[in-house]
Amino acid sequence: MDYYKILEIDKNSTTQEIKKHYYKLAKKYHPDKNNGISDENFKLLSEAYSTLSNPKKRYLYDMKLLFKVNLGEDFINHFSDIELEILHDYYLRLKESTEFKFLKLLYDSLPKNFKEKVKRKFKQHKLDKKNSLLNLKDIKYIYANSIDNDYTINLNRSLKDVYLNVNKEIILVTKNYAYHVFITSSDYSLEFKISNHVLTIHIQTVLPDHYTLNGKDIYYNHRINLYEYYFVDTFPIVLPNEIQINLKNSQSSSGINDSVKIPYLGIKDGCKRGDLYIYKNLDLMIQNKHQYESVIKEIFT
């Protein structure tokens, strides 16, 4: 339901034009013209005029239309009027940024046939209701409308997300404000003062087995047994992004418990990545030594 279409006006119409169109259509749908019956058209017309003739209501309605068109119908249902104003302010600043103006200029300079392909692609994306420009399932909410003490929240991030610099959004809702927190890195803390109390959010990386971190450098502890040490040519190493590399035994180290350094495979910090250090540790522990007693005896006697 579009109030502008109901009043037969465009989105740039003035308040005076809105009033003029309303009275014109009201005469057509007024109960006096329809045997005293107030039909649905007249009700919608009155509803549309009540919203668009009020500058505050019209502003909020325009924001809902704007973000509904850009981000999908479900998106708008998750925000209050105050949050919509925050989003609108951000939207306006984005439009006025140098980067946005440059991208618009670049797009305008593209060949016409290419721009038509882009438009068709976005149109198809919009028609596919299963897809959306923003996945609301990925957004986590923290409701702190009324807290009566200091609180600490520990948020864990996987090493894979930190390694790939995956963006996570948290919306912290308080009585008067909504904070949109975008997290790309990890291992730091945020503090919010709410009603004379402090809400602290600790963001930390959960490390899988064999991994440790030293700043932006990653340390991988690869344990091998005696057989692997002497007879296996390569060792498979699975990186945090789930890509597997095969490290040659002859290149892994010159001796036991030495390490090999692979540049630029660590955590990203700004425009640079740290390094990956792989330690090869000889594991002589045998779970069931009695099972291999005869073999060990044959080797060493």
Topology:
Elements: H1 3-6, H2 15-29, H3 40-52, H4 55-71, H5 73-76, H6 81-96, H7 98-108, H8 112-127, E1 139-144, E2 151-158, H9 159-163, E3 168-174, E4 178-183, E5 188-194, E6 197-206, E7 211-214, E8 217-224, H10 226-231, E9 234-238, E10 244-248, H11 249-252, E11 259-262, E12 268-269, E13 272-273, E14 276-282, H12 293-300
Parallel strand pairs: 1-3, 2-6, 8-14
Antiparallel strand pairs: 3-4, 5-6, 7-8, 9-10, 11-14, 12-13
Helix pairs in contact: 2-3
Describe this structure in words.
The chain has 301 residues and is of the alpha/beta class. Strand 3 and strand 4 form a beta hairpin. Helix 2 packs antiparallel against helix 3.
The CATH class assignment of the largest domain is Mainly Alpha
- CA-to-CA gap between the ends? 89 Å
Give me the side-by-side strand order of the main sheet: 7-8-14-11
CATH architecture of the largest domain: Orthogonal Bundle
The fourth-level CATH homologous superfamily of the largest domain is DnaJ domain
- Based on secondary structure, the structural category is alpha/beta
Low-confidence blocks of residues: 129-134
Shape: elongated
Our count of helices gives 12
Overall pLDDT score: 80
Number of strands: 14
- What would you report as the Rg, rounded to the nearest angstrom? 31 Å
The helix/strand series, from N terminus to C terminus, equals HHHHHHHHEEHEEEEEEHEEHEEEEH
Describe the sheet with the most strands.
4 strands, mixed
- Residues in β-strands, percent: 25-35%
Domain tally: 3
Could you estimate the helical fraction of the residues in percent?
Answer: 25-40%
Give the assembly state of these chains: single chain
CATH topology of the largest domain: Helix Hairpins
